[in-house]
Input
Amino acid sequence: MKDTEPINPYAAPKAQSLLAEDGKDISLPRRPRSVKWATFVFVAFTLVMGLLYWQAFNDLGDRKFWQKMSIFDRALLLPIGLGLSLFGGRREIAYYVNSGILALLAIIITWQLFLKWLLDGAFAKVFMLDRAFEALVCCLLCYLSYRYTVGLPSRRYFGLHKDLPGASA
Output
């Protein structure tokens, strides 16, 4: 004889909740630090670049400012990354676009810093502490781009960890 009760088709359905005892959702991972820091970088860079471009636009007084901008300019990419970071949620498009923007931002800033140091003779003009701070910020931005794009917590957050070799779901 069976110890289990037979299923009653006329009984009310039982609630199947993914909530733990304390009321928190256990099905989705929390937002990792790399995603939080990327959002902070998008907010900070958007504000700073917006302020700088606003000043440059007001100083020029004609259309030369807009003619100098390219499609890969940070002033155009940062608001897109900020919007996707704030309102994109866990969508794959938010992951791919923000990964690309972070990587492009890290490459542009690294290249500009390298050219500044190489061509402008920047080491003779200022203290080494300023150069060390610039290098630290550049390295941290490159590391953030790496953690956001390749890091397992970030990929789990966006639901892309299944395509990694050796990753256990």
User: Anything to note?
Assistant: DSSP finds seven helices and no strands in the chain. Helices lie at 33-60, 64-68, 74-87, 92-119, 122-125, 128-150, 152-157. Residues 33-60 form the longest helix (28 residues). Residues 44 and 143 are 17 Å apart (CA to CA).
